[in-house]
Amino acid sequence: MLRTTHRSTVTEEQIDHLGHMNVRYYATNALRGTRAVLADLPGWGDRPHLVHDAYTRHHREQLLGTELVVRSLVLGADERAVRIHHELADAATGTFAATFVHRVSPVDEGGGRLPVPEAAAAAAVAEAGELPDHAATRTISLDADLLSSAPDLATLRSRDLAFRKPRTVLPSECDAEGRYLVELAPALTWGGEQVDGDRPDHLHETTSGQLMGWASMETRAIFGALPRVGEHIQSFAATVAVLDKVIHRVNWAYDLETGALLTVLESVSLAFDIRGRKPMSIPDGYRRIEETRLQPDLTPAALA
Length: 304
Prior knowledge:
Elements lengths: L2 E7 L13 H17 L9 E10 L8 E11 L4 E9 L5 E11 L11 H10 L25 H6 L8 E2 L18 H4 L13 E2 L5 E13 L8 E11 L3 E10 L5 E13 L4 E2 L4 H9 L12
Antiparallel strand pairs: 1-3, 2-5, 2-8, 3-4, 4-5, 6-9, 7-8, 8-11, 9-10, 10-11, 11-12
């Protein structure tokens, strides 16, 4: 049964350049829900944890002052992970803002994943429910294996798919022991200096007077490992599909010294007319540039 696990209000600092709540804060609400579920799960205790697989489907934009509520449901568990569904909604109307599926595991002091305790897994299975129909995925598949189907570092380099310049993990990104902070994990793909100077601007003015931005529709982030302070990392990106209003991308972040895959982010974004507050077709010039980068063979593959 769904239960309320968190409440919040959309504040001014959460509003982004598109005029609505930034995707970061959708994730923050869901993570608070996961913490609440684990805190009440028999057999889990006070173990630290990592959401190593996070799927988000965005339903509606959220504007300044909206009161939000998170409702959560355990979907199941085994020794590898506890699976949790969250829905973020307008507390007044019940309209869905986003739905989520989290796979979460305990971690050791070094951030390494541990098996789910037997008692916690049994308790999760005993209370498990079914994923609601409104939370079903669209383009992104939860059955795809983003880690094993990822291209290796040499392939990404040979195709010139660097998204950010190489960088060093900073002390400010880590705890006192030099371990990368889990809450900063999205910066593994987005952090650092952009390498591609001819990629179109994030905001694009069209000849007809539209101001296009990208609204996130779906994302799935998988974390294979987290770096430590001083390590050298780099992120790469490929467009795997371009439709009329939608673009499908995959980002990868690698440890440059060991070649270890740190994280994979799959995303589906909608071209959004900021002035008209509605979806729009991707402008032809923008589309042509993206199509020159198209790498459909790098689309994440489903599990065999």
